[in-house]
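Summary for the steering committee. One of the milestones for this cycle was to obtain a three-dimensional model of the protein with heme C bound, which we needed before selecting residues for the alanine scan. The sequence and ligand used are listed below.
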Amino acid sequence: MVKTLSGSLWRGEKKLKFFFLCFVLFYWAGVTTEAFAKKQGPQPDVKVGERLFYGLIPTGEGSNSCVSCHAMYPADSMNWNPSAIEMAKVAAEMDLATFKEHLLTPTGAMREKVHVKYQLDDEQLFHLQGYLAELSDTGVKEQPISINKLLIFLLLGGLMTLALVDIFFTKKIPYKAVHVLIIIFGISFQLKIVAHEMIDLGRSQDYMPDQPIKFSHKVHAGDNKIDCLYCHSNADEGKSAGLPSAGLCMNCHQVVRNGSNSGQFEIAKVVDAYENNKDIEWVRIHNLPDHVFFSHAQHVNVGKRECQECHGEVENMHILKQENDLSMGWCLDCHKKTNVDFLDNDYYKTFEALHKDLAEGVRDSIQAADIGANDCMKCHH
Ligand code: HEC
Ligand code: HEC
Ligand code: HEC
Ligand code: HEC
Ligand code: HEC
Ligand code: HEC
């Protein structure tokens, strides 16, 4: 009995030794092939790069994490910093030396201001750029409501129901504190889950189409006092106001290459569009239905209306927004209350009866509606 036991133990020890030997061999093989692979051409550790990007690994004392400026979500245009994706696309194209220079010894007014205090060694820079290259390939991943969250939510609901049932009916657990704890814990966790989902939902709901370039009317029409008609020259004589071409932007940006808010990044896109003959695909904001006729020239040139009467204080907007609802009521209202410059404009010569009324003092002003601006056919051809 004793003998057989020790015999089997001995056999077990042999097996152990054998396995141990195999393990050492495999480990050694693994290490050498890895070292070999490194010699073949090192691969960036994307996970390390990601942690550097999010500031989970220190990037230098007093430095900011990249993600604090280069946001992961399509930024509202008030965020002048390049979004993470846009930045990653640029970074992926750089060689390591340029990438290093942009972060550690940046040149250019804005870059010198924002990329400061980074202490990253070559290996970290390599991983970081590797992560950015991957990011520029895959983009930001959508996060659907996870099954886990849903299950936890339901489970908590179940637990709380049981607690309630026990308080009022089954009364199995004598200590009321247990029920109270379960319910408080359950509700606060459920609230947390709901809050998270709401924030995620809000993100798509408030989604304002980002313009391809962070163009600001405040910077141009406000701070630099550029006339609206310089860029929307068609508003004076045409039906639509029209948007400027990249060529027109270049009248100034041939020289102005550094914006005080966005640095070189946004203006570089204008130059790129111009030099490569690409259209800048502005996202259209105002849009009347097809069955309505509206002419800018009629209002700007003939009616002498200011752009701001219909578009609001555009010169104060970084992000352009539609100020009025462009409903039929809005058009008709203005036509009823807006005087036309009846006497001094040849355009109105044909309205003889109204001229007579004015001369005889029957009325002291003529509104747009009086000259037919509110006839259905004027707006609905
Ligand atoms: C304080 C905000 C801020 C932080 C933090 C920041 N950046 Fe930037 N980054 C900017 C701005 C602004 C620009 C545009 C500068 C310019 O074009 O003049 C920029 C531009 C870039 C560019 C493009 C360079 C180019 O030639 O246009 C890269 C690449 C970049 N950042 C990488 C990073 C990385 C990697 C980190 C983290 C280690 C980081 N940034 C941290 C604000 C920031
Ligand atoms: C330097 C050129 C420039 C100047 C000056 C300028 N704009 Fe613009 N405007 C643009 C560009 C580019 C867009 C398209 C991007 C955007 O919507 O912000 C635009 C868009 C608009 C739109 C929205 C178009 C749409 O999609 O519905 C309105 C309205 C507008 N501008 C009015 C004005 C008014 C009013 C002024 C003067 C206070 C003015 N703009 C001055 C370049 C300019
Ligand atoms: C009449 C001259 C002029 C024209 C035309 C013009 N810009 Fe500018 N733009 C400027 C000036 C001046 C600045 C401000 C530079 C600064 O911040 O010091 C500027 C700044 C910018 C900036 C950076 C804003 C910031 O504060 O960082 C962007 C982006 C820009 N322009 C895009 C455009 C686009 C797109 C067009 C054509 C639709 C255009 N510009 C047409 C004069 C012009
Ligand atoms: C009487 C109201 C009114 C006035 C005044 C007015 N607009 Fe508009 N604007 C509109 C309406 C309405 C639209 C939408 C037109 C459409 O969808 O067909 C529009 C559209 C635009 C657009 C984008 C589409 C296009 O027509 O190319 C621009 C840019 C624009 N306006 C600029 C201006 C500028 C610049 C001025 C001043 C010179 C001005 N507007 C004066 C009502 C007005
Ligand atoms: C800010 C005030 C204002 C708003 C808002 C406005 N209009 Fe006008 N509109 C005028 C004035 C003033 C005239 C007279 C100019 C003239 O003699 O044609 C006019 C004239 C017209 C005419 C020409 C009538 C004629 O005599 O042939 C048409 C068509 C018209 N508007 C359509 C519209 C439409 C469509 C809208 C809404 C999308 C609109 N307007 C919004 C002020 C406005
Ligand atoms: C000053 C310009 C103007 C005049 C005059 C005008 N409309 Fe309109 N109408 C509009 C505009 C702008 C819209 C689009 C409103 C919107 O999309 O909310 C519209 C929309 C409509 C619609 C709704 C269509 C839809 O898609 O829901 C009808 C119906 C209509 N108009 C009938 C009339 C009739 C009938 C008259 C004459 C009594 C008239 N309109 C006079 C500007 C005008």
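Key point for the committee: The chain has four domains: 46-138, 147-205, 211-326, 333-381.
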